[in-house]
Amino acid sequence: MAAVTAGSGAGSGAAGSPQDTGGSTGGGGWRRPHGPLQRYYGPSTAEAAEAAPDPTDINGPHFDPEVFMTKVRSECPLGQLLAREAALGREIRALDSDMQTLLYENYNKFISATDTIRKMKVDFRHMEAEMDDLAANMAAISASSARVSAALQDRHRRGAQLAGVQALLRKLQALVEVPGRLRRWAGTEPARALRCHARARAVLRHYRHLPSFRAIEDESHAIMAELAQRLRARLRCGVEMLLQLEEPAEELSEEFLSQAGTRLEAELAALEAELPAADSSGTAATPPPPASDILDFVDRGSSAFVGTLCQLAGSYRALLPAGADAAAALVARAARERVDRYLRALQTFFLGCLGDVRQALAAPRPPGKEGPGLPDLLATLAASVLGQLKAVLAYVQLFTARDVAFASLPYFKGEFCVTAVREGLVVAFVRWLCRTARGFADGPAERGAPAAPPALLLLLARLCLDYENSTISYILTLTDEQFPPLESGPAVTPGPALCAEARAAAQRLLDHYVQVQGAAVAQMLRKSVETRDWLGTVEPRNVRAVMKRVVEDITAIDVQVGQLFEEGVRRAQSSDSSRRAFSVYSSSRAPGRYAPSYTPSAPMDTHLLSNIQKLFSERIDIFSPVEFNKVSVLTGIIKISLKTLLECVRLRTLGRFGLQQVQVDGHYLQLYLWRFASDERVVQGLLDEVAASAAHRCLDPVPMEHSVVELICERG
């Protein structure tokens, strides 16, 4: 089968079928001499088109070995298969012989082709060498061309630089000659001088940082100033002659404005011509190459259009003084209205800051979290108001700036600084602030102000006191520096007068704070006295809760006042102030002293003895003005509270235990309140009067032992 498989590759079509194996040619068996050439070149186009796809055709394009072997095994017997194997062997040997013959016949051609190829390779190497030489020559030529081009470009650049230097020298020469030309043309050809100055003005202004250009610019300005004076004199003379001819001033002003408008429109049109135009679709068209950069454009716009506008405005004011006076009056009125608006803005700002302070004081505090303290609120309020006032002064100062034309008017050099700014703005605001702060102390019914919390009264009192000490003098000094008044100007409000108003407001606020806090403590004491049955009360075993609350409130007030005011001076206390005995008898009616004469037939007149004691005791002024320190404030509050307790006790009738309860309460207050007062004798004196009044109003005046009173107070 292996032989059959190998031989099958040489068979073809019908001639290669098993039935043809018996044929031979010249005794050599079955052979197709043109088979190899046909297999090499393939079948012709006509044969390929006519032949149907045959998978068993060994020479066909559709040959399939599996199909061919299947067909041979199924159709040929063993003898034919063997015969076919022998035929295929012969065919293979014949093909080998043909190949050798073909090789021998074409050997010389192969040798000559090999020599030809070798020569061609040698020639090709020579050509490559020549191409390399040619490329090197071309590179050298390119380098030479580049050097020549660079030399030409350098020469062109140097030529352009030389041309630029020559043009610059010509311009510099022209600039140097500007003062001479202006001086020569100013008398004979003013228009030509103006055109020359207009052309050179922008360049001179751009390079004025150089000394030589600054000198040329200064000389040119001096010449043009003289020319402007002559032209103005000529114009003023012409206007005066026209007015003498009874020409209407309105027509002259309209003609002047018309000519000025024409000139300004021409300069504005020249500037607009350099801007890119917009097409119909709304998008900007491609701008032409700018004649100058943006800085030069802005410089020419400010020097030409704006400068001309200022000159025309000045000329109009000088030619028509009546209109200038009306314009000055209009500017002055606008300035005054602006200052009034700033004053109202300051007042609104201060009220807003006060609202923020009241909101911060009234805001609930979560447990364990403290809000802003009074010093922080005071610092924020004072800094905000002072900063806003300084900002307003900076805004108002724009009316007196040097670059403002109307700042040179006499009104803005004298009356505006004093009457409008210092008096109408600064002094008016300080006085309004003091009146507003004082309004919180005058009461809602009297001034229409809302009821203020005590902490706000204390804070405003400290603010007014700070204004009296330093802020007012600082504000007035700053105002006088920014708006210096004239020596011969109107009178101004002196600083001490404003400071006195601020101190009066602070004093009124602090007095009202003492009255409010004293009234709050007194209200507790009054209710505790009026709502108790002093005849039927039991024997005292504790200090009443209201007395503890009084001490707690006085302590809280001490902390609050200490945040904003200094400690103050206390009178030297005795060594046993906190342990001093509190008796229902005064020093002139001690029990031991009067015990021998105390009999039913000769009763002791306690009311008379109390009045005699008052004659020799120091008078206590309850509602005296307080000083600006913590001790004085607390003393005032304690005096109001204990005076209220005294008056309430005088109106009650007490039993024995009621008197003893007053004795215990008074001793408890003496133990704690003396340290808050400026003089412990004030507290002791008022409490002695309370005890004396209680004893006088008692039906059975039997006091409690002092040791028992101390024990109850220490336990309570």
Spell out the helices and strands N to C.
HHHHHHHHHHHHHHHHHHHHHHHHH
Q: Specify the overall morphology.
A: flat
Look at the structure and give the mean pLDDT. Answer: 78
Report on the biggest sheet: none
- Contiguous helical run count: 25
The beta-strand count equals 0
Name the structural class: mainly alpha
User: Strand content of the residues, in percent?
Assistant: under 5%
Distance, first to last CA: 134 Å
Cα-atom radius of gyration: 62 Å
Residue runs with pLDDT of under 50 for 5 or more positions: 1-33, 445-449, 585-604
InterPro entries: Vps51
Subcellular location: Golgi apparatus, trans-Golgi network; Recycling endosome
Subunit structure: Component of the Golgi-associated retrograde protein (GARP) complex. Component of the endosome-associated retrograde protein (EARP) complex.
Keywords: Endosome, Golgi apparatus, Lipid transport, Protein transport, Transport
What does this structure look like?
The chain is mainly α. Among the domains are: 230 residues, no CATH class; 126 residues, no CATH class. Helices cover 71% and strands 0% of the residues. The protein is built from 25 helices and no strands. Helix 7 packs parallel to helix 9. The termini are far apart. The N terminus is likely disordered.
